[in-house]
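tmp note - DUF2905 domain-containing protein
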Amino acid sequence: MGALKGIMAIVGIAAIMMGGLWILQGLDIVRWPASSFMLGDITWTRNGAALAVVGVALLWFARRRT
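out:
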């Protein structure tokens, strides 16, 4: 069970980071890569927020005591 919690924590952190990048790209704050279709598209802001929430949930489950 410890390995599963470790994997959940890693995936949760990655989801939070990727969700944050999507949010910033959707808000047109981060313009990387310069030719991305995500820049300035509010849909990616919502998708990033949803992914970040999933990441937080994964971290919460990984840190929860049985």
